[in-house]
Design brief:
This protein is α/β, with parallel strands linked by helices and about 300 residues long. The chain contains two helices and 20 strands. The strands form four sheets. Strands 1, 2, 4, 5, 7, 9, 10, 12, 14, 16 and 18 form an eleven-stranded mixed β-sheet that branches. It is elongated, with a radius of gyration of 28 Å.
Length: about 300
């Protein structure tokens, strides 16, 4: 009996010793950790609260869901579903909130990567939009004619702004664009009448035609040495720009880039006009130009 008790004592002592050095491992085929169980319960709970009368969703190319709103009278959106049927909601669908003219505030969760074409077009009352830093793409006409939008915190991971994305957001005051942005589409900030400051990150390659056309209060804008192309009339009718420097990376300039901006002074890092620049990139009635060595 004494020998038997000593044997059991050795086994228990050994188990205690091993427990100090081995991680908690699940035993049995169906075993789960507490955190995994909690995650699944949270996902199941979130899925169970999806209001199919409010939301419409379709599978997208990334394997997640694109979502749109059925209620055109909605005023605040803060509870976009995170997961549906085990798949993440990663995109705001094209025209998802188009012409929701009562919509005032939108908060997008951190899994949203794309805002689709015309997603918020014509949301005349939209004032506040909160987007995650992980957002990659703002599609064409995404915020077209959102005439009440004053501020927009451009996310650091943003890579592309589509054509007409913020066209006639006439109250938008500032655009600080991150280091991952490579393209600003045509008419992207067309007639943003209150826009004063634009900061471009060091990865922008293309500034599309009429990108800042008619931004009459625009005072400061930098052109980083990553930019290779500036489209037609990109800064036309921007008379408040105090000065702008064009680096040697810019191999193409479109027609009358500074049309109607006779008070603007352009400092070019070239000694003369590059051959690929349009012959009429700057007419005599447009900006004043200084070539390298003249300033």
């Amino acid at each position: 009996l004494i020998a038997l008790l000593l044997c059991f004592g050795f086994v228990f002592t050994s188990c205690d010793f091993l427990a100090q050095y081995l991680p908690d491992l699940p035993f049995g085929e169906g075993a789960q950790s507490e955190s995994e169980s909690d995650t699944e319960e949270e996902e199941e709970e979130e899925e169970s609260t999806v209001d199919t009368e409010m939301w419409e969703f379709t599978l997208n190319r990334s394997g997640g869901y694109s979502i749109s709103c059925k209620d055109k009278n909605v005023k605040v959106i803060e509870d976009i579903p995170f997961i549906i049927s085990g798949k993440l909601v990663t995109e705001i669908a094209p025209e998802a909130f188009k012409d929701c003219d009562r919509l005032e505030k939108v908060v997008l969760h951190e899994r949203i990567r794309v805002i689709g074409e015309s997603a918020f077009e014509g949301c005349l009352s939209l004032k506040e939009v909160q987007v995650p830093d992980e957002l990659k793409t703002i599609g064409p006409r995404a915020f077209y004619n959102c005439i009440s939008l004053e501020t927009f915190d451009f996310p650091k991971d943003l890579e592309a702004i589509g054509n007409d994305a913020f066209n006639y957001c006439k109250l938008l005051k500032k655009a600080e664009l991150g280091e991952n942005l490579t393209m600003i589409g045509e008419n992207a900030f067309y007639k943003c009448l209150e826009l004063k400051d634009v900061s471009l990150g060091g990865s922008v390659q293309e500034i599309g035609a009429r990108a800042f056309y008619g931004c009459t209060k625009l005072e400061t804008v930098n052109v980083p040495n990553s930019v290779v192309a500036i489209g037609d009339a990109a800064f036309a009718f921007c008379p408040s720009i105090t000065g702008i420097q064009i680096p040697t990376s810019v191999t193409y300039m479109g027609t009358r880039v500074f049309r109607g901006s006779s008070q603007v002074v352009v400092f070019c890092d070239f000694e003369e006009k590059p051959t690929m620049w349009d012959a009429h990139w700057n007419d005599s009635t447009d900006a004043t130009v200084y070539w390298k060595g003249q300033w």
